[in-house]
Amino acid sequence: MPEGHSVHRIARQFDRNIVGRTVAASSPQGRFAEGASLIDGRAAASVRAVGKQMFLEFEGDLWLRVHLGMYGAWDFAGEILVDPTIASANGRMGQTNQRGTFLEDDAVMDAAGENSLTSIGAPRRTRVHVRMSEQTTGLPDEDPGEWPPPVVGQVRLRLLTDATCADLRGPTACELQTPDEVAATIAKLGPDPLVDDLAEGEERFTSVVRRKPTSIALLLMDQGVVSGIGNVYRAEMLFRARLNPHTPGREVPEEIVRGLWRDWARLLRIGVETGQMMTMDDLSPDDWRAAMAHRDDRHWVYHRAGLPCRVCGTAIVVEELATRKLYWCPSCQA
């Protein structure tokens, strides 16, 4: 399931490439034909991400709400302008994924073909595949000079400007909303450290968790409690806090609950900056680069079932909790 850092990165890409431009909208697949016709010819006015959802505003008080869910993806083609506010840990600008670009000699690529350190040029004709998870796959190679690019697969929505194309595939939600409907949707979501005031968000999160009998593992995944946390960040945050995932929220000491919120704020910023869910601290430069290249080297417990805990050596366990896999150390998190 997607995690919030990717949605914020996608929103920033929209801000650089789509906002302020008139958009030609279509639904090649046909499932969003009516909605596409309503935004066709309008200018994109603003974009915002809250947790795992993105809201794209069009002139005339019309908003597009997109939740990519498990299988959704945005594909950008054409002139891809890198957001200067997203910098990687070595000071360079970051980009979620690059396909068909020229990479610098020191590029670090992970198994999904994602370059975690370097950015693509701006502007440059290219194609970028942006999913909400690290299991990203590329698109078939195509002629970068062909414009607009051919439709590949089941495209729910195509947003096309004079220089950039954004294709949406397989979302859980793709709908138009009024401003009041957007406000109502966001009101149901828990605080997001990149959207809400950090102190107010901490108080809201702490208050909710401390009165719930539900396990902290389930609460962290509840988007009504806190926005953006998915399976990876959930497992990693609980390990970093040395917290048993089955502890009821109301039994978690207040200082630990507050620590979870602050840790989420920190990890989310790192995720947006690097494009990776890096959850390990104090790595040497060589270990950091290795972790950027391989997902299994940047997590404490996630996806490590049966392997020794990096701290105590106890075998990491995996169990099913509410149909999702939960990884944790039965010793460090006893």
Structural class label: alpha+beta
CATH superfamily assignment of the largest domain? Answer: MutM-like, N-terminal
How is the largest sheet built, in terms of strand order? 1-7-8-5-6
Give the C-alpha Rg.
20 Å
- Per DSSP, the total helix count is 8
- Overall pLDDT: 84
* Domain module count: 2
Please count the beta strands (DSSP E, at least 2 residues each): 11
Strand content: 15-25%
Measured as a percent range, the helix fraction is: 25-40%
Stated plainly, the CATH topology of the largest domain is called: N-terminal domain of MutM-like DNA repair proteins
> Class of the largest domain in CATH?
Alpha Beta
Give the arrangement of secondary structure elements.
Blueprint: H1 4-17, E1 24-26, H2 33-39, E2 44-50, E3 53-58, E4 62-67, E5 73-79, E6 125-131, E7 155-160, E8 164-169, E9 173-177, H3 179-187, H4 198-209, H5 216-221, H6 231-240, H7 254-274, H8 285-293, E10 317-321, E11 324-328
Antiparallel strand pairs: 1-7, 2-3, 3-4, 4-9, 5-6, 5-8, 7-8, 10-11
Helix pairs in contact: 1-7, 4-7
Question: Can you offer a commentary on this structure?
Answer:
The protein is an alpha+beta fold and 334 residues long. The chain has two domains: 4-185, MutM-like, N-terminal (N-terminal domain of MutM-like DNA repair proteins, Alpha-Beta Barrel); 190-328, Helicase, Ruva Protein, domain 3, CATH 1.10.8.50. It is built from eight helices and eleven strands. The protein has helices at residues 4-17, 33-39, 179-187, 198-209, 216-221, 231-240, 254-274, 285-293, and strands spanning 24-26, 44-50, 53-58, 62-67, 73-79, 125-131, 155-160, 164-169, 173-177, 317-321, 324-328. The strands form three sheets. Strands 1-7-8-5-6 form a five-stranded antiparallel sheet. Strands 2-3-4-9 form a four-stranded antiparallel sheet, with helices on both faces. A two-stranded antiparallel sheet has the order 10-11. A hairpin with a 2-residue loop joins strand 10 and strand 11. Helix 1 crosses helix 7 and helix 4 crosses helix 7. The model is unreliable at 85-126 and 131-142 (pLDDT under 50). Its EC number is 4.2.99.18. Residues 2-100 form the Formamidopyrimidine-DNA glycosylase catalytic domain.
